[in-house]
Amino acid sequence: MIILGIILLILGFIFSIPILWTIGIILIVVGAILAVLGATGRAVGGRKHFY
Fold first, then answer.
1. Which of 22, 27, 30, 45 is deepest in the core (most CB within 10 A)?
2. The pTM is what?
3. What CA dihedral angle connects 39, 43, 48 and 51, to 10 degrees?
């Protein structure tokens, strides 16, 4: 999810498409939150590990 967010940020910057930029930022933030929750051992969506 984080990698997809980075790809969308880059594409949004290159092609000057603001919606890709916004979606990329949202995906990076959500991916980071899920990664931190998964790293602390907390079950996210019924799973102990989020990949």
1. 27
2. 0.77
3. -70
